[in-house]
Write a structure and sequence with these properties.
38% of the residues lie in helices and 17% in strands. By secondary structure, the protein is an alpha/beta fold. It is globular, with a radius of gyration of 14 Å. One of its GO terms (biological process) is phosphorelay signal transduction system.
Amino acid sequence: MSESKNFVVLLVEDEPADVHLTRLAFREGKLLVDVHDVSDGVEALAFLQREGKYQDAPRPDLILLDLNMPRMDGKTFLQRFKTLESLRRIPVVILTTSEAESDIVDSYDLGAAGFIVKPVDIDQFIASIQSLEEYWLTLVRRADA
């Protein structure tokens, strides 16, 4: 659990419209959620390791990860993230447009806790994020460290 009373979500997403919709969905949700967003895996690793401009970054309770991003894609990020002993227990849920079976299998093989295909419909997208909030932030019990 994060040190603040709110849940902390790190959104790793390069598409501004999807960042906006995700933030909107959490705002309309039942819980207080602090959403921090970065645009690729390089920034996500810096955020998680509190490097550079992220030196005061909070430890997320959940990471939402897109697969298709510039510089470092989601699979490469996940592979590197899972080697970080102090952080690797943070659940990572893939949130992507890809429906490829190979992406699903690879993501789970690399340690993803879930895989969600982004709905194209805005209302369905928001409903998906709110379902994710209900499951991961209310029902699931997570390790503190």
